[in-house]
Amino acid sequence: MVTATTIVKEIPVQETKRTRSSSFTQTKPKVLRPFNTNEVKILLLENINETAIKAFKKQGYQVETYSKALAGEELLEKIRDVHIIGIRSKTKLTKQVIEQAKNLLAIGCFCIGTNQVDLQAAANQGVAVFNSPFSNSRSVAELVIGEIITLARQLGDRNNEMHQGIWNKLSKNCFEIRGKVLGIVGYGHIGSQLSVLAEAMGMTVYFHDILQIMPIGQAKPVDSLDELLAISDFVSLHVPETEETKNMIGDHEIKQMKKGSYLINNARGTVVQIPALIKYLQSGHLAGAAVDVFPQEPASNGPHFDYYPELLQCPNVIMTPHIGGSTEEAQRMIGIEVSQALTKYTNDGTSLNAVNFPEIDLRAIREDDKNIVRVLHIHQNIPGVLKELNEIFADHNVEKQYSDSKGNIAYVMADIANVTDLKGLYDALIATRANIQTRILY
């Protein structure tokens, strides 16, 4: 018998190289440039941190810096042709100053507050204002902890005495802060961080805020300011300057505080009435105070602080020259945050986090999108404007469009395709009846 044998020949498997692929291809955003705008000029005052200067120079902007605040004719001369100005708390940008700045696009407040700027005057001229509301929160909170300990141990007075050659070792009216009650007025980013640090030091924390805010840790809210003042050994203020907070701590409020308690103000100078503070420090009702902000402050460093001579003579009072956020870490973060906001507004029109302005944004124009331009149109918030704009856009394809308003100011961003006559489009837009400021990026 012949048996058939099946011979199976092994065929070698050919190796194939596998490559990683994406389900979509991400195109780079297009770098936009302005039409009908000279090279961007930036003026930075009051020793703005180097991180901001480097960020602006990296964009190719012209940057001029000053270590001091400017005022009067000097400020008017310098601001006249700049596109962006960066300030801290000393430079005052009033309506009169802003109206002289014909090329101004944006103001950067490299600090928390914006009360040094006439926000409405800026908005009326189409100038967006940006600040850094959170970057120095930790620095201020840490300063308050240092002040609480310094006041409780009378370290300021002992230090002054030692510098005069006086040895005054004592323990009377000097305390640990463990077990003491801290009352926080304003439980925002600084107040809540302070709350955490104070609890870690063994303090009991209560707070009062006009908003319903979730407490952190064991902190407890109270219903009224008077209630908070009455139970606190230390009262620390962390509120913005508004019509409601001006002069909010005066004779009546300090009288509600415990005898032998301490008042700390790192908020705004107008929050505390200085004559009332002096009165209750001199009488001994308050055991001490820490003041970092004042109703009136010098515009520059030097021997200029002579506004409150009686306060200078009060015992156990820490006075500092508005340095709550003056740390290297805070100034670096502020420099990064504000410069990024100003750059995005200048380069892309993004107004997110502007304090006086409609906040809008659009996704980026892609690098491979041809003949698409971005229109940025700031106008008075009156009926019929969008109709006028869309009639101008009608000859083109509107890729995307977003508009919003804030008060009497409205802002439209629109990406328009197939634009070949930039000047014609620009001239038509600035001729609209409600136009305040128009830019085209392409």
TrEMBL record:
The protein's annotated pathway: Amino-acid biosynthesis
Top-level taxon: Eukaryota
Secretion signal, residue range per the UniProt entry: none
Pfam families from the UniProt entry: 2-Hacid_dh, 2-Hacid_dh_C
GO biological process, one term: L-serine biosynthetic process
UniProt cross-references to SUPFAM superfamilies, sorted A to Z: ACT-like, Formate/glycerate dehydrogenase catalytic domain-like, NAD(P)-binding Rossmann-fold domains
Domain D-isomer specific 2-hydroxyacid dehydrogenase NAD-binding stretches: 146-324
GO molecular function, one term: phosphoglycerate dehydrogenase activity
Keywords on record: NAD, Oxidoreductase
Domain D-isomer specific 2-hydroxyacid dehydrogenase catalytic: 42-356
Family: Belongs to the D-isomer specific 2-hydroxyacid dehydrogenase family.
Protein name stated in the entry: Phosphoglycerate dehydrogenase
Gene source species: Rhizopus delemar
